[in-house]
Amino acid sequence: MPRVVVGLSGGVDSSVAALLLIEQGYDVIGLFMKNWHDESVVLNNDCPWEEDSKDALMVAEKLGIPFQTIDLSKEYKERIVDYMFAEYEIGRTPNPDILCNREIKFDVFLKAAEKLGADFVATGHYCQKGESEIDAVKSYQLLAGADKNKDQSYFLCQITQQQLAKALFPIGHLQKHEVRELAAKADLITAEKKDSQGLCFVGKISLPDFLQQQLKPKEGEIIEIPLGFTPKNNEELREAQARINDYINSDLLKLTNSIIGDLALLSEPIHYYITDGISVGKHNGAHYFTIGQRKGLQVGGKPEPLFVLETDTKTNLIYTGQGDDHSGLYRHCLKMNTSDINWIESYKAIPENTVLSLKARVRYRQPLQDALLINTGNAHYVWFYKEQRGITSGQFAAWYKDEELLGSGVIC
Description:
The chain is α/β, with parallel strands linked by helices.
């Protein structure tokens, strides 16, 4: 019988994943990943690894399967934590959970599982795996989870075809309440355990405390940009927007250099200068903030709350605007370098100078948005028909056709 190593995290989802695999006749081994040691930045002892490891062991004993703990903290620091520090330092906002899946769960962990004779690895993700065959070659698809409120396909948007071939998602066809019911019926200790929050395998962290391990506080000014602010290149932006609208309403023929230039211009976030607004307070480091952030600014006395519009780590300035509807928070277009694009099935990649109509999202749980994916050669653009809030450099855009996640890229 095929052997499966389940990443037992100490939560209900991975517990039920193991339970279902046993019922399906697999030879199951439970493996707990220990990826973090420093609890000084974890809030309220949320999700400490010792408690999770104990729960995972008790689940394995209840299910009667072998159990081991593997320490991947060195790899986790090198591939995830150091990456986080480097991204925040230059003013980008990383998504460590997506990288954790690509670099840890389905790479380092998978290789460790294969040393135990595993044919597959399984996780408690709410997503599904499809199959297709072209010219007698089997290919695998990443599909959304049946529970639309819990669908986690976005977090797996960077895994490769080779990684997906070795992956199983036993609970992807279930609703969350069904998973808890199965856990309760099997008398598993995790049946009523709260879902973990925060950084993958670390827990709910105090991000400033976490970042201050390497990125030191540095006082700077908070600049407020008025609601009616007009960018210096506003007329150029309006003309580019008009040309793109005409192009989209046409038959979407071959891309011209003019259209490509317009896409590049409109994908750039608005860049502000200190003379564009007024100083309204101080912060302790621009690298601790991200676009769209509201908490942590500690500036009161405004009719509407302030939101971060831009962070400039070179000048250590934060630009903010009042209200969630400030124009500086919204744009239609984003850019990704082609070298940062991942297609789950490579044959579905669109050729250069091609436009594909699809749906896309730029964050977990965001409702899918109507969009166009445009390949201009060195870059790919996602054009949203409706302006999107808080498009952020360093995050990931993922695109779908129906229930299938086709690919993703890192936002420039």
